[in-house]
Amino acid sequence: MKYLVFVIISVFIISCGFDKTDQTHVIKGYDSAQNEAVPHFQARFARLSDDVPIKQIHNVYIVKGQLVVATSTGVFCYDMEGNFIREISHKGRASNEWITVGPLIVDETNGNLEIFDTSSDKVLRFSLDGSFLGSSNLPERLFTVYQAESLPDGRTVFTHGLINDSGVLYSIEDSTYAVESSFRTYLSTDGACERIGKHPLSVHDGDIKAVFPFDNHIYSLRDNKLYPCYTIETEKRTLSRKGLREIDKFSFNEYITQSENGYFVGPNNIFETSTHILLSFFDISYILIDKGSGETLCFSPKVGSQLDRIAPIGIVNTSSDYFVGVIDVLKAKSLAEQMPDDCDGDVLLKIKEIASAPITSNPYVVLYQF
User: Fold this and answer.
1) CA nearest to 63, candidates 108, 15, 17, 27
2) Which pLDDT value is given to residue 241?
3) If DSSP codes are grouped into helix, strand and coil, which group holds residue 269?
4) Residue 89: enclosing H or E segment and its boundaries?
5) How many whole angstroms separate alpha carbon 226 and alpha carbon 228?
6) Domains of the chain and CATH, by start
7) Which residue among 46, 57, 90, 192 is least enclosed by CB atoms within 10 Å?
8) 16 with 170: CB under 8 angstroms?
9) How far is CA 153 from CA 108, 137, 205, 319, in A?
10) What's the whole-model pTM score?
11) Do 13 and 226 meet the contact criterion of CB atoms below 8 Å apart?
């Protein structure tokens, strides 16, 4: 199990722009997370209708009261109950088609969508009704991009995978893809594009927060510097930036090695709404931060024991102050096996219902709210 966990991890560590002068809030309880209570939350389930078979969901966005679902085969719109509305775009080689669905940006003002196709080095633009609005070329250097987050002033934050000695972790660029600032690393690879994580940056109201594997801080990016705003208290060792720089050719195996040596792994995902910040440790443990009170809660699934409460799972995004998650039948079945026969609670009962569906059924989109 632990090998599956760490095989999805990548690394980045920036070599400039840190500022340790700010006071940070200390997050306690991570090391004993198994003993903490799961937070109370509301969950709204939407089963995606079978009009279009969906095997893998990359991301989900809420746009003007609709669910925009980016998958490996297409980008589709559903209503908030999961009923199919339309296809936005699909795979192909025409000017309005893509080879690989990469990052997707939503213009909150008009609902227009930008789909980044890093395989053909272009970005396609569509309206929410599916109309093709044109495309433009992406610089060749952006083929390593796998996350794009828009800023209120029209700029974009791009997150990059590490490849060879390119060393760019993420960049802030204007609407013409001119780089305004970029953050680098000393690490290199042997040619494979090492991914950093699915959502290593969080942008909310223009505020950028970042997390780094093997680091126990959450950083806020301001004025081209990263200021630590939260510190995770842990008895495990943390790998210094110098220690990372001493790795000649980074690969996934480095995480397995360092974690088995007792080092703190760090969160691989960060999600933020107006009320909460959620750190995810590969669906193994979580930290929930209440931004209003500053209170934090560290919790983990009770692996191998009966589940009388369950943590939010499968989170891929935040939108309209919801944490947006995805759960399929296979995942629901594995969870249901750990539930008591006489379990109660709306969320547990719903997961049991999903687990009883045919294995070919489309996934559910879940909107969590604490």
Assistant:
1) 108
2) 67
3) strand
4) strand 84-90
5) 7
6) 2-247+259-369 (2.120.10.30)
7) 192
8) no
9) 12, 22, 11, 19
10) 0.86
11) no
